[in-house]
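Q: What residues go here?
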């Protein structure tokens, strides 16, 4: 069975890393110690310490491993519901103002007195403990089941009430400003409490931390920022926590916010309802040479040469379109031909600004945080004007792919991961053409987001 490296995330790096450092400094830590705490808070999403990459898919869909699923619960979906167990019994409650599962880890760090533990270890552990507390606001509610045949008793996905497992909406602060403020206030309170119980770690023993009310307006502006430029401007404006002090100078580059959404915002589009497709688990397989050759030729044409129109003879555009059109894409497909829709879903993975792709609805056109929908032609017009990614190889730091065989089927699956869209995986289904037996075509494209 496959093991796909996907990230189980909620709030993104602008909050877990960037804002956590800012809050730690305001609470009274040095800049260096604040950096250590912030790196700890981001660590569970990076997979450095815990099985965040691939954890949801592996535990729920492949190994049916409750131990991994429990780790996902502990660090990303904090709750007391039994694992395995029904999703509605594993609902997540935000971590405040009362103590609950979201506050368990950080409360232990606040109260712990380990005089012989290295300070760096203490600070890192504090940051890690803050992660589930922060995630509890983004993941609040009943976790959604990502796709069948994933186990309903082990799966974790963005709750349907916050956009569902196919969207980034739950991660974005501008769509949840009050939740962002509540998250920051609770984190700040714990950081202040930690220094009260560990006074030796204060940068100034005589300093009184500012009241949360004095910080709230600035955090409100942070939450409001709806694109990368505005987020970067906010961090650049924080003179006491200089942007240059962040060890990761590129942490804002790959958050799922667009570089600019001005043109997309100005579009006039109708309303529709939401419903997401479910993916099929695939089985690992050493593909025949002709399948591997077809996949490499197709990916070269697509990802290296950017020849979207050249992909059409090797794509069953009607089958690809119908697989998505009967789901949420039905309203988007009205008036659009299958070839244009197929070109759109291939083009969107070439756009460097994946935040804009996410904002536009990942090809299905539902604009983030609204009921607005963009037509296929409107999306193509916007995306064709955007800078594209330039890949040096099909396998390398920019992208990677794996070929698998679907169980009980003659079809093959191709899982593609992109560095510019680190929270997404793209799936192609490869099989024989109905009209030309013995000739391979791409029969379907799908994707999942966590």
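A:
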């Amino acid at each position: 069975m496959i093991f796909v490296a996907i990230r189980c995330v909620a709030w993104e790096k602008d909050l877990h890393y960037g804002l956590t450092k800012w809050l730690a400094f305001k609470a009274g830590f040095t800049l260096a110690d604040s950096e250590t705490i912030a790196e700890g808070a981001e660590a569970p999403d990076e997979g450095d310490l815990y099985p965040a990459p691939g954890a949801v898919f592996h535990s729920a869909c492949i190994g049916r491993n409750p131990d991994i699923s429990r780790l996902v619960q502990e660090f990303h979906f904090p709750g007391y519901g039994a694992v395995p167990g029904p999703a509605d019994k594993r609902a997540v409650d935000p971590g405040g103002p009362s103590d609950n599962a979201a506050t368990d880890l950080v409360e232990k760090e606040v109260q712990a007195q380990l005089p012989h533990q290295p300070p760096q270890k203490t600070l890192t552990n504090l940051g890690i403990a803050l992660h589930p507390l922060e995630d509890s606001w983004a993941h609040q509610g009943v976790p959604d089941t990502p796709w069948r045949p994933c186990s309903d008793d082990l799966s974790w996905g963005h709750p349907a009430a916050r956009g569902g497992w196919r969207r980034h909406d739950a991660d974005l602060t501008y769509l949840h400003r009050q939740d962002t403020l509540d998250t920051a206030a609770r984190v700040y309170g714990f950081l202040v409490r930690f220094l009260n119980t560990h006074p030796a770690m204060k940068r100034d023993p005589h300093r009184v931390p500012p009241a949360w009310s004095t910080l709230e307006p600035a955090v409100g502006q942070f939450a409001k920022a709806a694109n990368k430029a505005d987020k970067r401007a906010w961090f650049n404006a924080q003179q006491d926590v200089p942007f240059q002090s962040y060890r990761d100078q590129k942490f804002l580059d790959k958050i799922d916010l667009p570089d600019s959404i001005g043109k997309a915002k100005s579009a006039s589009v109708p309303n529709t309802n939401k419903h997401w497709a479910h993916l099929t688990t695939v089985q690992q397989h050493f593909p025949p040479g002709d399948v591997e050759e077809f996949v490499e030729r197709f990916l070269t044409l697509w990802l290296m040469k950017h020849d979207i129109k050249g992909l059409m003879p090797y794509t069953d555009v009607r089958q690809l379109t119908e697989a998505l059109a009967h789901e949420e894409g039905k309203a988007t497909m009205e008036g659009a031909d299958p070839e244009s829709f197929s070109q759109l879903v291939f083009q969107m993975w070439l756009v460097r600004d994946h935040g804009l792709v996410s904002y536009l609805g990942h090809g299905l056109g539902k604009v983030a945080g609204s009921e607005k929908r963009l037509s296929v032609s409107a999306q193509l017009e916007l995306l064709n004007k955007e800078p594209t990614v330039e890949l040096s190889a099909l396998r390398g730091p920019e992208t990677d792919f794996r070929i698998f065989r679907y169980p009980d089927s003659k079809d093959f699956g191709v899982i593609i991961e992109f560095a510019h869209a680190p929270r997404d995986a793209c799936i192609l289904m490869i099989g024989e053409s109905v009209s030309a037996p013995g000739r391979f075509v791409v029969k379907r494209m799908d994707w999942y987001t966590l």
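A: Context that may help when evaluating the design: The CA atoms of residues 282 and 406 lie 5 Å apart. The two ends are 20 Å apart (CA to CA).
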